[in-house]
User: Which sequence fits this backbone?
């Protein structure tokens, strides 16, 4: 589309303080030339103008359409060229990416191989370090053992030097002792040492037994002392108990003597009471014989309680019979003109056993 030219009209700035409502005309209005103000664009003026021909306007629009089509075609060619360039660049980028992927794959494979080699090298290094540490510790242990062996050797050398005089002494003793003192043996020094060891062990056993016997003697002595103290305590206790028993015996003897005197004094009264008791028993037997029935047992086969119960029942029966008789006699006397009331009381006698 063709660019339209813009027309612009420059005007002086309007005067200020001019009122439209003024009635009278100004004095200088005769010198003023009035020019209309146009603010629209050129193509708008052509379109709105009544003097412009229709054909001119149509040609103008066709020119503008051709110009727009040309610009559109140019834009299409430019877009196509750009798309082709983009496609070429995309293909190149894909090729570069593929080459980059291949290089990355090769590099990753190279890195993986290097890592495997590195791990193997590290493992080998660690194994060698452990082997070195183990060998080092073994070396230190062997050195310590060697040092201990050297110390032991020095100690044995010192003991050998120290015991050399004892060997000399034993050889001198073997030469000085009788021939039949030790049984025949190849090494007399060894036999002498064995004899000394035997005597030493026997002496040690004797000393141990002696110490054990002394301890046992002390225990027995302590036990004997405790037994003596216990015996003395029991002796004192028994003596006090014996004195108490003697006192009790004397008191009981005195009491028995007094009881014997009282018994002798009351012997006559007891004889009299016994006689009275025999008389009472005989009286009870006689009364029972009179009161018993034919079917009752004799007096010598019944105890005193049964006898008394039988006598009591007999007396109760007799009293009941007497009451019946009195009641009958009273009823006959009450029929007279001057009745006389008689009260008789029957007494029931109960005899209780001793």
Assistant:
């Amino acid at each position: 589309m063709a660019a339209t030219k813009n027309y612009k009209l420059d005007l002086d700035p309007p005067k200020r303080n001019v009122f439209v409502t003024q009635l009278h005309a100004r004095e200088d209005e005769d010198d003023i030339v009035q020019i209309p103000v146009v603010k629209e664009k050129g193509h708008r003026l052509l379109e709105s103008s009544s003097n412009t021909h229709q054909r001119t306007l149509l040609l103008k629009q066709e020119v503008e359409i051709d110009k727009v089509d040309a610009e559109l075609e140019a834009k299409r060619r430019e877009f196509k060229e750009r798309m082709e360039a983009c496609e070429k660049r995309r293909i190149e980028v894909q090729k570069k990416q593929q080459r980059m992927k291949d290089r990355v794959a090769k590099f990753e494979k190279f890195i993986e191989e290097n890592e495997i080699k590195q791990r193997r090298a590290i493992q080998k290094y660690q194994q060698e370090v452990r082997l070195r540490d183990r060998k080092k510790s073994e070396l230190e242990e062997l050195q310590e053992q060697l040092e201990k062996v050297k110390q032991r050797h020095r100690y044995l050398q010192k003991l050998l030097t120290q015991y050399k005089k004892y060997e000399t002494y034993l050889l001198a003793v073997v030469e000085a002792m009788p021939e039949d003192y030790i049984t025949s043996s190849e090494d007399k020094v060894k036999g002498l040492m064995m004899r000394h060891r035997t005597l030493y062990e026997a002496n040690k056993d004797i000393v141990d037994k002696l110490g054990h016997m002394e301890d046992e003697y002390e225990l027995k002595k302590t036990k004997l002392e405790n037994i003596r103290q216990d015996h003395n305590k029991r002796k004192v206790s028994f003596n006090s108990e014996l004195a108490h028993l003697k006192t009790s015996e004397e008191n009981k003897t005195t009491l028995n003597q007094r009881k014997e005197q009282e018994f002798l004094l009351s012997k006559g009264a007891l004889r009299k009471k016994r006689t009275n008791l025999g008389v009472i028993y005989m009286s009870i037997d006689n009364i029972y014989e009179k009161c018993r029935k034919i079917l009752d047992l004799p007096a010598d086969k019944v105890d005193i309680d049964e006898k008394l119960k039988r006598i009591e029942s007999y007396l109760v029966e007799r009293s009941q019979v007497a009451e019946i008789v009195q009641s009958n006699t009273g009823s006959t006397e009450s029929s007279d003109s001057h009745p006389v009331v008689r009260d008789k009381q029957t007494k029931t006698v109960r005899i209780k056993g001793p």
User: Anything to note?
Assistant: The mean pLDDT is 78. The first helix runs from residue 42 to 48. Residues 332 and 338 are 12 Å apart (CA to CA).
